[in-house]
TrEMBL record:
Its cofactor is Zn(2+). This is D-arabinose 1-dehydrogenase, Zn-dependent alcohol dehydrogenase family. PANTHER family: L-THREONINE 3-DEHYDROGENASE. Belongs to the zinc-containing alcohol dehydrogenase family. Pfam families: ADH_N (PF08240), ADH_zinc_N (PF00107). Residues 8-338 form the Enoyl reductase (ER) domain. InterPro entries: ADH-like_C (IPR013149), ADH-like_N (IPR013154), ADH_Zn_CS (IPR002328), ER (IPR020843), GroES-like_sf (IPR011032), NAD(P)-bd_dom_sf (IPR036291), Zn_alcohol_dh (IPR050129). It comes from the Bacteria. It comes from Caballeronia arationis. GO terms for molecular function: oxidoreductase activity, acting on the CH-OH group of donors, NAD or NADP as acceptor; zinc ion binding.
Length: 340
């Protein structure tokens, strides 16, 4: 089979690799959808000197189980099962792994599919059976791919933050994670202020239910948020852009006793404790979601009738990888997905 490999310096290639065969405790999934995530761009843009070897990209996998190795007892691992994949794998035995947080494993180096181990941008993918999450037949494979990282990341942050219908939340960045957050926050009854430098993404946020949208390039994002909240500030802020300026504005736009959650990769944020100490802010980080939360997110999407397929503005074949990532690199528009 041929899979997509990030070669560095904004180059990708379809590389011939052997078809995967499941070992003990493993399954092979026939891929149906593999999402494009903003964190892919770190691999896409990195120097060729940082590329260790051919590794299939993609950490938002979704498909159908087609082969099962020995010793597999997972009820989700039957042939023909529709599944998502929790895209981390740890030791499977420590407290973190057993509680559904393999990305927090400290026993062994954590594998991240598409980064440390072959990912989903290929016709087939081999994974441990205990990383599978069932996908309801009422959800598309593309929706399952979104939940596997981007939408699941927004859900995981909201679990930590405790978003309710009483909140006004400022969501910095309206890319795939931020737009997912807008959809989920509105479904929970919150008032949403969406911020992005890209006009098309602001328009999409508005279409997805954002009560207000702001262009941070105008230079007064914090003041604008306070104006929209009677001078008090938002009760919560979620930073998804991975930009230092967005992180600083997130810290500055919430009212006393508010909550700020940082999920965007790549930003370095500094702040004065003297200025923030008496605000009683709760500052959180959030790293995607647990296995249980991935299932809970899918259940919520179904229960509230959220149209995750509306996130996708670009649907690609594997042989269009070069064109797909050139467009995605512009960071304008919605989410892309490879469909097989």
């Amino acid at each position: 089979m041929r899979g997509i490999v990030f070669q560095g310096d904004r180059k990708v290639a379809l590389v011939e690799v052997p078809d995967p065969v499941p070992g003990p405790g493993e399954v092979v999934i026939e891929m149906k959808a593999s999402g494009m995530c903003g964190s892919d761009l770190h691999l896409y843009r990195r120097s060729t000197n940082a590329v260790a070897g051919p590794l299939i990209g993609g950490h938002e996998p979704c498909g159908v189980v087609v082969a099962v190795g020995s010793g597999v007892i997972s009820p989700h691992a039957r042939i023909g099962a529709r599944v998502m994949v929790h895209h981390y794998y740890g030791c499977s035995g420590c407290e973190d792994c057993r509680s559904g947080w393999p990305q927090m494993c400290r026993t062994v180096p954590v594998k991240v599919y598409g980064i440390d181990s072959d990912g989903g941008h290929a016709p087939y993918m081999k994974v441990p059976a205990n990383t599978l999450v069932p996908l309801d037949e009422r959800l598309s494979f593309a929706a399952g791919a979104a939940i596997s990282c981007g939408t699941g990341t927004a859900w995981g942050a909201f679990e930590r933050m405790g978003v309710t219908g009483r909140d006004t939340i400022a969501i910095f960045g309206q890319g795939p994670v931020g737009l997912s957050a807008t959809l989920l926050a509105k479904a929970q009854g919150a008032r949403v202020i969406g911020l992005d430098i890209d006009e098309s993404r602001r328009n999409t946020a508005k279409a997805f239910g954002a009560d207000f949208v702001i262009d941070p390039r105008e230079g007064h994002a914090v003041e604008a948020i306070k104006d929209l909240t009677g001078g008090r500030g938002a009760t919560m802020a979620l930073e998804t852009a991975g930009a230092a300026a967005a992180g600083q504005d997130a810290l500055g736009c919430v009212r006393p006793w508010g909550t700020v959650c940082l999920v965007g990769i790549g930003a370095e944020i500094s702040f004065s404790l003297a200025n923030l100490l008496r605000t009683q802010l709760r500052i959180l980080t959030s790293w995607t979601m647990s296995i249980q939360a991935q299932k809970a997110c899918a259940d919520f999407v179904l229960e509230r009738g959220i149209d995750l397929d509306a996130l996708f503005t670009d649907r690609w074949r594997l042989d269009q990888a070069e064109e797909a990532y050139k467009k995605f690199d512009l960071q304008s528009g919605g989410k892309g997905v490879f469909l097989m």
